[in-house]
Amino acid sequence: MGIEMCGIVGITGTKQAVSVLINGLERLEYRGYDSAGIYVNDQTGQDYLVKRAGRIANLKSALTPEIQGSAGIGHTRWATHGVPNEINAHPQYSADERFYLVHNGVIENFEQLKQEYLADVKFQSQTDTEVVVQLIDRFVVDYEMDTKSAFLKVLHLISDDSSYAFVLMDRQTPDTLYVSKNKSPLLVGVGDGFNMVASDAVAMLKETHNFMEIEDREVVIVKPSGVVIRDFDGNEMKRDTFRVDMDASAADKGTYPFYMLKEVDEQPVVMRKLVQEYLDTDGSPVIEPELLSRMQQADKLYVVGAGTSYHAGLIGARLFERLTGIPTQVFISSEFAYEQPIMSKKPFFIFLTQSGETADSREVLVNVKKQGWPTLTITNVPKSTLSREATFTLLLHAGPEIAVASTKAYTAQVALQAILAKGLGMAMRKQLAIDFDVKQQLGLVAVGMQAIVDSKDQLESVAARYLAQPRNAFYIGRGIDWSVALESALKLKEISYVQAEGFASGELKHGTIALIEDKTPVIGIITQDRTAGLTRSNLQEVVSRGASVLTIASKHLAQPDDTIVLPDVDELLTPLLSVVPAQLLAYYTSLGKGLDVDKPRNLAKSVTVQ
Ligand code: F6R
């Protein structure tokens, strides 16, 4: 069955392929980590295929010194169907062991292709990928086509609703990578004496900083000496290279035990980076005038995202409404995709997506575009699919986020929406926006975040004392504190497997309070003047039912026995601080349980299936 979220890397040229592939796969491991494999060819007739179930570490320990080559392909997999075992791992290969293929995506009509063309073939894996590679072999061997034509023929036979990123190797042209994509990310890395391909630039940054985009439904031939891109009709496409100046070490853990901790710690720097990128010396937002004018014409803003990005959108909606007066509604992308609400007359869509690749969000973008409405993607990944397909893009500049649990991308999304709301509000001459000194406030936020990340010891002991044992926990709050409660609970459940809920604190007593038992942790978030007293009363209700109550409170609202006291910032921006202790509580709970913080079970970083 389909292999949907995976990391792909390929190289051909003067480099030692094995180390490049392994290094690339390690950087892509966030995309999937239940099995991995490589195929390399040394150009003298010797080739090697190594696959293992489990992490890349397993694959690495299976490699022996004679396994070498100057061209190869590698794959790390996260399966949603089919067992993640060695046989189903990629590369998949043809029965005559001539063709080797790595694939990310789902071939929707693979059963039909199998019956129509390969009824006599015995398959060893359960993958759709094996069908594709066997079919290429069939056209080459039985129909005497050359490899490129056979590859193209198969691409034509694959149904349009399928998704794929393919890199194919042929033992008879061992320095050539045959490449194509549809709806799945893949790009070319251009080097000196070598060329590469991978599903994310981070997998190639150690070797090159120059990249080339691949559009959907093109065939790309990658050789050591050059890259030729053609559309499916055979027309050669001119493509410029672009440079990514990111340092390869930005994607390294450095001395940190886990990426998540590094990424939590980077948040003050990300805040300063956003100030530098988007605000001028007097604190006015520097945003494309065309974007502001299109947003200004809107009668309603629709914010769309999934998971953590959806949670960032909840805060954004509050910011847009307060600072611009434009009604704003937030949607979970997978819901909007199938149940479009009755639309306002002049909608403007904002897509929040760290990766820029989330299939649920893309589905909405594609539909919205068809209806002719303007769109903005706010993403961390330049040239990602949602960035390319939207009318406008704003980049988060947060640096690569590798840990599966999103942290710095969330705070960057909130901060950038604040800057955008300020810019839009100013353009609309809204007094609240004019008075909101976002530059000064983000400066305070950066300092406040630093103070919180510097109090890790305290958070580690709170996590050990209150969160190590219980199966259930609650984060509660009102208004934007509730929105942060949702994100805080998601962090806790995804990496520590504690069943956590984020709840509107006033709503708890209407049913869910029945779940409170002796020592159930309930963490109250208290940052808003208007609701602080109410949330404290709701905490009293659970104390009297035996809950262990913890509090995260802004300084000016704090009481002597609050657990964590946050430095004061403008009420609109408190989520940027209140979420940080929650991220660290989740981190230390997971760490204390001995779990793999960065790679929680059942999850992958970028969810490219619907
Ligand atoms: C949770 C998390 C996910 C993502 C979601 C959307 O920590 O990271 O909930 O936020 O899968 O991903 P993006 O933002 O890449 O669209």
From TrEMBL:
Gene3D superfamilies: Glucose-6-phosphate isomerase like protein, domain 1, Glutamine Phosphoribosylpyrophosphate, subunit 1, domain 1. It is an enzyme of class 2 (transferase). Keywords: Aminotransferase, Cytoplasm, Glutamine amidotransferase, Repeat, Transferase. It is found in: Cytoplasm. Its EC number is 2.6.1.16. InterPro entries: GATase_2_dom, GFAT, GFAT_N, GlmS/AgaS_SIS, GlmS/FrlB_SIS, Ntn_hydrolases_N, SIS_dom, SIS_dom_sf. Catalyzes the first step in hexosamine metabolism, converting fructose-6P into glucosamine-6P using glutamine as a nitrogen source. PANTHER family: GLUCOSAMINE--FRUCTOSE-6-PHOSPHATE AMINOTRANSFERASE, ISOMERIZING, GLUTAMINE--FRUCTOSE-6-PHOSPHATE TRANSAMINASE (ISOMERIZING). HAMAP family: GlmS. This is Glutamine--fructose-6-phosphate aminotransferase [isomerizing]. It comes from Paucilactobacillus hokkaidonensis. The lineage of its organism: Bacteria, Bacillati, Bacillota, Bacilli, Lactobacillales. The gene is glmS.
